[in-house]
Amino acid sequence: MQYIPIKTRVMQPPQDDLYSLLNEHLADMHENDIVLITSKIVSIHQGRCVSKDDAPDKKSLVLEESEYVTEGNPKYATSPLAIKYNAMFYAAGIDESNSNGYYTLLPSAPYDSAKEIWEYLTVRKKIKNLGVIITDSHSLPLRRGCIGISIGLWGFRPVKSHVGKPDLFGRKMELSHTNLADAIVAGASVVCGESNESTPIVIVRNAPNIEFCNCDVSAEILIPLEDDMYLPLLKVFHPRT
User: Fold this and answer.
1) Is 3.30.1330.100 the CATH classification of the domain at 2-48+104-225?
2) Among 46, 150, 164, 193, which residue has the fewest nearby CB atoms (within 10 Å)?
């Protein structure tokens, strides 16, 4: 499997055209590629940027953008922890880096956005099998640093089931699945960077175990909070009011 980082021009907040960026920088694409696109440039395309001069304080903005919230570590005083799009984020994913005086929010309807990008690229590049993932960064509990995570995708099945298959000693697997989408995105964290690298797109080539499709697969990867194995820990979150 190969990760190909794509260096681009700078997307300009508060709004810029993502499709002109794709036309300019995505020249060489193959069948069965998976295109990873950072949420930042999708958000800028959607105009999901709020001027710091016009915004309320950041905590109020976080509360507006969150689906569930809980108070965070007081050592990080800017804002609470939040759940949005079935993922846990500090500050609801609201970002000030590479935003030129704006707060950049997470994109709206990321699965729909991934589908729109997929439709555009498959037609323009005359490709049948293609995956699109919209990515963001978040921090894992008890680990230092950021890692990539998917927040929207289209074009392939994101989870591979091993249920019913035998292990090395013949015991049938009962619960095991591989989260292909987030595993692929995590690998891209190594080549994208987090500061001024200007590589908001990565092409993943020759990824194994991928089943391409043209359908909504969000239910295959997203687990309702009440069904999650970490529910006892997640109970500290409450719906944003």
Assistant:
1) yes
2) 164
- Is residue 90 classed as helix, strand or coil in its secondary structure? strand
pLDDT digits (tens, 9 = 90+) for 94-123: 988 888 989 999 999 999 999 999 999 999
Tens digits of per-residue pLDDT, 56-76? 788 889 999 999 999 888 887
The answer to whether 67 and 237 are in contact (CB under 8 A) is: no
DSSP state of 82: E
Q: pTM for this one?
A: 0.94
Cis peptide leading into residue 110 (ω within 30°): no
Cα 73 to Cα 3, 57, 81, 143, 173, distances in angstroms: 35, 18, 9, 14, 38
CB 81 within 8 A of CB 94: no
Query: CA-CA distance, 137 to 82, in Å (whole number)?
Result: 14
Locate 232 and state its tokens: 């006892």
Place of tokens 């997929």: 118
d(CA 48, CA 55): 12
CA–CA separation, 104 and 100 (whole Å):
10
